[in-house]
Amino acid sequence: MHRYFIKMPVFVKRLFPRYVWEGPGEGNVVYLTFDDGPHPEVTPWVLDQLRVFDAQATFFCIGNNVVRHPSVMDRISAEGHGIGNHTYDHVNGWKTEPDAYLANVRKAASVIDSALFRPPYGRIRKAQARGIAEAMGQPGARIVLWDVLSADFDATYSPQQCADNVLRHTVAGSIIVFHDSVKAWPNLSGALPLVLRGLQERGFRFGALAGV
Ligand SMILES: [Zn+2]
C-alpha cells in the first residue's frame, strides 16, 4: 500500500485553499513539474524530451544543485521553462523548526529567482508557510503543490505504471509531478515519453507555471 495519493483528493485541496493545486485549464493546458534538479545528465535529457513535444514545464530546483550545475540552470531558463524554489537542502518541513526552514528557503532564493515555492515532500507547517514570501523576497510568492503524482520516485512502480498514474488522472489544469533526479531515473526515463505522447494525443498542451 502506498502512503500518498496519486490523485490529490478534493478534501485536501479544500483544507489548504491558499496553496496552488492546479493551473489555469483554459486551452486544455496541463503543467508538468520536475523536482529536485538540476542534475547534469537527467535534466538535459528531460529538456530534450520537452523540446521534441514543444512542451513547457516548471522545474522546482534545489539551491545546492543550482550552485553545482549553473549551466544546466541556464539552459532551463533559456528554453523558456518556469523555475521554482524547492529549498536549498531539500529540508523536510515536519522535521525542521520554522526559523531553520525559512533560512534554508532564503538561501535558495539567493540563487533561484522565482515567486514559486514547492515544499519538499509537500510537507510544510503553517508557521513556515506564513514566512515563505518574506524569506523569498517575493511579496506575491505562491506555494505550489500538485494535482497528480507520477510516483516516479517509487521503485515499486514500473515506468508504464508511472505513466498510467498520470494518463488516468490528468485533466485540463492539472499540475503533474516528476523528478529530474537519479533516484527517479529508472521510472522517469520510461514514463516521460509515454506521458508526453499520450497527453498530446488527447489534445493537451504543456505550459509553464511561471505566470500562476
Ligand atoms: Zn523534492
Automatic annotation (TrEMBL):
It holds the Pfam family Polysacc_deac_1. PANTHER family: CHITIN DEACETYLASE 1-RELATED, GLYCOSYL TRANSFERASE-RELATED. It comes from the Bacteria. Residues 28-207 form the NodB homology domain. Transmembrane segments: none annotated. Keywords: Hydrolase, Metal-binding. Coiled coil: none annotated. This is Polysaccharide deacetylase family protein. It comes from Flaviaesturariibacter amylovorans. InterPro entries: Glyco_hydro/deAcase_b/a-brl (IPR011330), NODB_dom (IPR002509), Polysacc_deacetylase_ArnD (IPR050248). The lineage of its organism: Bacteria, Pseudomonadati, Bacteroidota, Chitinophagia, Chitinophagales.
